Every structure is written in structure tokens, then in C-alpha cells.
Amino acid sequence: VMGTKNRHEVLSLTYPHPLKPVKTDAIKTGEIGIVSLGLKNVGDVRVGDTITDAKNPTPEPIGGFEEAKPFVFAGLYPIETDKFEDLRDALDKLRLNDASISYEPETSVALGFGFRVGFLGMLHMEVVKERLEREFGLDLIATAPTVIYKVIKNDGTEVEIHNPSELPPVNEIDKILEPYVKATILTPSEYLGNVITLVNDKRGIQEKMDYITPERVLLEYAIPMNEIVMDFYDKLKSTTKGYASFDYEPIGYRDGDLVKLDIRVACEVVDALSIIVPKSKALTKGREFVKRMKELVPRQLFEVAIQASIGNKIISRETVKSMGKNVTAKCYGGDITRKRKLLEKQKAGKKRMKSIGKVQLPQEAFLTVLKID
């Protein structure tokens, strides 16, 4: 297999037939056949790759094969933690007819074991998640898309950050480096203004602009990868009515003014909701995040505080009001002090629940971060 450089033993060669495959000793140039290999891993062969004789290989693979580049990376976790292996098997099977999916194991303090999966876009991510749930009977939670950052500590050591929860304390960080890509955008000239506005909002740095024809414009930008993994591709298609094309290639790491935005629910940080954002956008994103979370967190018997924080500094807060219970309903007249005692007892109980209570977050809460502009 020329793409993966793997060697396999050929178990059988057959021609496809409506009733039953027909065995053969050789499949010649231009023919359509079935090659059965002793594969033990789905990743050993890719759709579109070239298979050749190991002893007498062809000098060049068949043209047209190119490994799909994922645009969105997100964590997928089974709600039932014992379904981890089932999720692995499901991803393996799904990749047989969707070669654009890439994945590797990752862990979360809040969600346990799961996979960091690469998708072509937000729509692709939603389709894959739905297929995993419908075809394989899995209940999944999707986390915020991420990229790999590099942190230079004060002592000069360099650390790779695969998950925002791994970011060292602020006082130990000298600088944070974020991956950049060279984005090539081909768009009709009538949408040029919309595209430039979109890319500038994503912190893009223009490097080239050429009019290929009076109607077509080629743009090259250096853009932080973090800005394109969320919804850039979908927004580009939307703002150009689907006529723009987009490709990217990594160009290394650059210094970035970044901070980790934590979300606290009932005073506890939910690591799966943490994201790394530009400092200039942290306040806006934090406010929008807690506002949306307030609508999704179910009401409890005690007040639930939803906070956005940078380090120990709270930058935004919303409160989910507690459910009311009329503890004086059975009091018909009598001394007012009895009602007052019941109300004071209820108040003390709610205060105690607030300090030790746990809040179960719905799946929609983890999807909220994906929808923030």
C-alpha cells in the first residue's frame, strides 16, 4: 500500500459479480476487482490509495490520491464511560466509508476517556456525531474544538498543550505560541469585501491578493489555526453563497496574546468547557458563554452560579435561580414565629446544599461553546 508504506499478504483476488464474487489469479490494468488482505487495523489502508506488488512495485502511485485535511478538531466522549471501546470500534468502522475522519485518544477530568477527532467542518462534525449515535447506539458529548499550543515557561522550558486544562498557571508562563496556517482563498470578486471583513475578524494577516480574472480573486492570509477550527469554513461558505474555496497549510508557530477562559459551575471549573482565546476577545466570549449556559443548566433546589474566569479573576457571572418550595403551606394561622422558623430552616438547608451540591450538566451545555462567535 503506497500511501501508508505497509506490506500485506494477499489472501484472495476476485471480480465483483451480482450473485457471487468470481475468483481470479490476477487483476490487470484497467480492471475492477476485489483484493482481500489480512488487515488487522482499518488505518493500514486508505480510500483512494494505490496497491502494488511489493517485489515489483510501480514507480509512481496513481494520481489523485490526497489525504483529507480536517478543519475542525473536537473531543468526543461517551456519556457511559464503559462505552469507550465501543466508540473506538464505531470510529474504525465509520472511517471505512469516510476517510476524512482522523482521531486519537484523549482524556478529560470531567468527561473521562474519549477521542480527539478531526472533521471537515461543523456540519461534518454534527453528521458524524449523529451517525455514531444512530447507527451504533452511542450517547456522546462533543467538546470545543482545539489546536496544539506551545508554552514557553519562565525557566525557558517548552511544553506542548493539547488541552486547555493542561495550561500551566499564569505566573509560570513567559509566552504562549499558537499555530498559524497559510490560508488560500479563491472567491468571486463580488464577495471580496465580505471575505476580507471575515478574515480580519479572525485575526488574519494579508500576504497576497491577485485578480486571476476580473471575476475571480486569489487571497493569501496568515491566520491563527484556532480561528479556523471553529466555524470559519462554514462562515466563508455562507458569506460567499458557497462559491469560495479554501485551503490551508501549516506555517509554524507565532507569539500570541492568549489567555485560558474557564467556566465555573457552582464554583467548580468544568475542564471540558475551558478554551484558549485571544485576550481582546475574552470578555465578550465569557459574557456570551455564561448567558447561554444560564438557559441550559437545569434549576436546582439551590442557586447555581455560572461564572467565566481568567485565572482567579471572575469576568462574567449569571445565576440560575433556585426552585421555590412553599414550606409554610401546611401552616394555617397560629404564631408567626413558627412560619419564620420553617423559612429560616429552609434558608439554612439551601445554603448547605449550595456548598456541597453537584450540578449535572446537559449535553447541550457542552455544545454551547461551539456556537459562540
CATH topology (fold) name of the largest domain: Alpha-Beta Plaits
Q: Provide the succession of SSEs.
A: EEEEHEEHEEEEHEEHHEEEEHEEHH
Q: How many structurally independent domains?
A: 4
Structural class by secondary-structure content: alpha+beta
CATH superfamily of the largest domain: Elongation factor 4, C-terminal domain
Largest sheet: 6 strands, antiparallel
Mean pLDDT: 80
CATH domain class of the largest domain? Alpha Beta
Overall 3D form = globular
The total count of helices amounts to 8
Approximately how much helix is present in the residues?
25-40%
| Euclidean distance between termini CA atoms | 42 Å
Q: What is the total tally of β strands?
A: 18
CATH architect. name of the largest domain: 2-Layer Sandwich
Round the Cα radius of gyration to an integer and report it. Answer: 27 Å
Which residue ranges are poorly predicted, with pLDDT under 50 across at least 5 consecutive positions? 352-357
Q: Strand share of the residues?
A: 25-35%
